[in-house]
Design a protein that fits this description.
heterodimer, A: about 500 residues, alpha+beta, seven-stranded mixed sheet, five-stranded mixed beta barrel, 22 strands, about 20% helix, globular, B: alpha+beta, six-stranded mixed sheet, 9 helices, about 35% strand
Chain lengths: ~500, ~475
Amino acid sequence: MTPTLDPTFLDLPYRALGDVALQRASELGADHADFRFERVRYQHLGVRDGVLQGAADSEDLGFAVRVIHRGAWGFAAGVVLTPQEAAAVAERAVAVAVVAADMTSTPVEIADEPVHADVTWVSAYEQNPLEVPTAEKADLLIGWTDRLRRHAAVQHATASLQQVQENKYYADLAGTRTTQQRVRLQPHFEAMGTDEATGVFDSMATLAPPVGRGWEYLTGSGYDWDAELAEVPELLAEKLVAPTVTPGTYDLVIDPSNLWLTIHESIGHATELDRALGYEANYAGTSFATYDQLGSLQYGSPLMQVTGDRTTEHGLATIGYDDEGVATQEWDIVRDGVLVGYQLDRPMARMKPELNGGRSNGCAYADSPGHIPIQRMANVSLQPAAEDIGLEDLVGQVENGLYVVGDKSWSIDMQRFNFQFTGQRFFEIRDGRLGGQVRDVAYQATTTEFWGSLAAVGGPATWVLGGAFNCGKAQPGQVAAVSHGCPVSLFRDVRILNTNDEGGAR
Amino acid sequence: MTTTTWTPQSLVEQALATTTANHCVVIVRDTTAANLRWANNTLTTNGVTHGVDVTVVSVVEHPGGMASGSVSGSATTQAQVAGLVAAADAAARAASPAEDAQPLVAGQESPDWEQPPVPTDITVFDRFAPALGEAFGTAGAAGRTLYGFVSHAHTTTYLGSTTGLRLRHVQPTGHVGCTGKDRSLTRSAWVGGATRDFSDVDALALEAELAQRLAWAERQVDLPAGRYDTVLPPTAVADLMIDAYWYAGARTAHEGQSAYSRRGGGTRIGERIARPGVTLYSDPHEPHLECAPFVTAATSDNEQSVFDNGLPLGRTDWIADGELRALLQTRHSAGLTEQPVTPYVDNLVLSVEGGTGDIDTMVRGIERGLLITCLWYIREVDPQSLLLTGLTRDGVYLVEGGEITGAVNNFRWNESPLELLNRFTHASATVPSFSREWGDDYFSRTATPALRIPDFNMSSVSQAR
């Protein structure tokens, strides 16, 4: 069944408020004005050891007016849904622009875009999880922790489910009107145990990615929960008594459940044009992939093909039109290992008209009605090989290495050079064969060296769309959900640390 | 601010009057905020916002105990509040008895309960903004580029309950951060801090300090990874202590899952975990760091409980004279661990007995070492040791013979804040500080000293500038 726009959202007075706000902004002389009305509904469930620990529903409802006036940005947001308040918020946005104008040395301009007169878009899902009874969802999570705790190695188990329904209405002075809806959810479970002989504590979590799907994801569409719930306790038991890793240089076969996060940090953020141009310098940072290197920067091995897109089905950054009324797209970021593209919003596209035909590629996003849209990440993904290459094919190419599965800890510097990641599971590879787990592992590398060491990528059957709900950026801080697809991949000669050795104890 | 006649108090009273649950707690937060952001010596995205967030926690008595339902949303009308109450009541009725159930906190009323929300708006920058424009000119003329952000918010919280609580708290939160770079973008410096009202923020002074720091970096020195005698300034110490605080949940420690767990079972409360003379505490009445003196919890988890809403907060020593004294407790976890109830407080102070002087004093005592500006992208690597990783950022300075002689490349580091509290050799006086990593969005009320670590683990070199 194709989902439709939620009638309770359609009943809200967004069109009338938008008309009032845009008219008032126009009367006050704004060169550009846009109006965004949003309702974002959340539900979080948390279970610990077979007991529902917390359940909370929340809703973010409000609207925002953004203007360009006297060459400066102005932005204001409110929550009182009356025409008077819509006009007042427009006035406050213009007032902010007036204050800002004296300190805006480079007048703000945005790229022209086609007008989308009155369009709607709804994401691909079968059943809205927020419409499933809470008790049914809690029972499922409780059942997960109960199953995990049946194993002797598991002393405690947690499970959680975050669900989001996002409705947005966008209107601007040029005449674009978009009304959209998307659903996403993030299930999680984790088993924890302690080895009595050594006192070592550890945990093992699900590899399930967050997705732009509905409740059907929890009942078998796209993920085999039963298999993983059966597997994790055994893996935890093995990890608790696994030998500690010997630090050194290893070949890594990296599973998509881990590699998505490395892509996010070392490619996704590095190819945001606002970062490359300095607009994020005080907070998340800039980028080593500076604009002058477009078309020449050897990002990695020639096997490396990376795309940005906001259109892939079930992607967390997927939507029909972005928060500046731009139809979403797919494009190349790295082709044959060379940097060839960036992520753009309308202001960035105007600054670099030679990119994308002078148009935005649809990467504007605000996480709430109280925040201004900024350039946010598309679904940035590594493409698989055309051939049918599987995990065993890659493992077979390794004499001394590790197979890395699942994400855990992540950190990268403010220009996206130096990173360090851990994982859920690290399996030894010796002479082309997978062995048992080792523990206390982190891998550390520099972005271009790491991607330059990419020796093989798996085929389409190994490609998985991973992702996160909690990508942070901007001041004031905003979070965004984004997906990253990739195949299992082989990297040569990566530095492996032993985290016990790094621990600081002398 | 609006043309409607609602007040936060009326929203609270309406919710409490219409609930059909056995008990109910209502929290209304009225927040106004203003901000300016700049990059490349020009303003970029600026804004003002107003939000009213209402949380309704309904409690229903079931045969097996009390169950709760929590619903939050933007609400400024009776109909919106009625919708939240109905949803919370229904959620509580559908829920199973809660494991953290406790009697709701008994009534008391803040003397200022009837007062309206305290707003802020763009005029809070009336003095700062023109000075910032002047700073752009000064920096630009000298070949420097400024990137930064200022934010000011007022959140007025109203908490009412069917057990008679009527509590109000006004929380001003403000901060400034500014990064400066030279024309070639190879030198970078940062200054930042927290403020309650922007009366103490001088844009031209910030620019001058950045200019001085960029001048320090005219000589650039490449150093390899290794362990260095390192001065962590108060902002970096705040970064690390916030993590030490956030991971101090009593229940997870009691269940063997953190650095505060005793091997073999239970918590490490009562053990010496830091050098003698080290005290880490929170106090809602700490001068210049004042925060809410009562618990507000929209949902229950390991470190908070909706049943504890309104519980009074006071000074809590987490570490005293080097001994672990308390962990983050709800009344429920306090029962599990058989320890006093010590809920989360929204500020943090680290003090070291005998700590005197400032960063300059500490630098003068170093024969050869490093002075860091701030830390970044800090994440937990190993919960059992609280091993953290992160990077240095926007200025690592070489100290030789007690003087700053140049700037060094950035590093990735791996360290545990608990280890550092045992290994430091010198501490300065405790001063207001501001975490570069967490201060903007989560935790800006900190006071910490600078610490000198004789062997800080710089795990690898970062090329970032």
